[in-house]
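Reopening this one. Same input as before:
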Amino acid sequence: MKKLSMIIICFALMFSLTACSGNNDNDVSGTSKVETTENNNQDFSNISIRLIGGAISVSLGDALSLTYEDGTEIEYSIDDDTLSISQEDVNDMILVLPSGNSYDDVTFYIERAQLSMEDSLDVNKLSMDVNNGELSLEDLTVSDSCDMSVYQGTIYVNGNVTNIDATSNEGHIEIKTSYTQTDYNYELSMTNGGVTLGDDYYGESSSIDNDADYMMTLSSTTGDISVEYTK
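Same output, byte for byte:
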């Protein structure tokens, strides 16, 4: 009888060890899946930022992050290959984008806020819509199209900007491009506003054909648009 009892105890211990080993394998598998998901969340080729208040300073770094100045993390989402940020805030925020990346489509909507970036931003298509705020991009490369619209705010862009479609209602748009004035054809449309191309001021609608590779379509109601050429 004692021998039978010992056999039963041994079987029980073996069954317990096997069960524990199975649970540990499941735990390791679960941890691996979480890490893979986090790494995938760093991959995106489009950016959409909607800012109602506050200010965002954008820079480049080792990994994606969005925080307040004190380091507190702010929620964002990555879905369908798009980083989406929507904030109705009055505080200053810091967005760090992974360095070395280029993006297919980037969209900024600025209501009563500011967005600024001094580091390089490489984009295929860029769209900017500013109501009463300010948007400044200091080192921009746009390979396809750059669309910008201002109601009462300000947009400032500087860099390698190809095809441009800009509309200023009552605001101000300033463009500094690394191309020459004759690298563009122009369609200028004015109501009570004006457009300045280099040293030339236009107060009336005009079409300029330079047989160029790129196009600027500029429209001003009561605001103004100025273009400066660095070559």
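So the earlier flakiness isn't reproducible anymore. For the record, Residues 141 and 160 are 5 Å apart (CA to CA).
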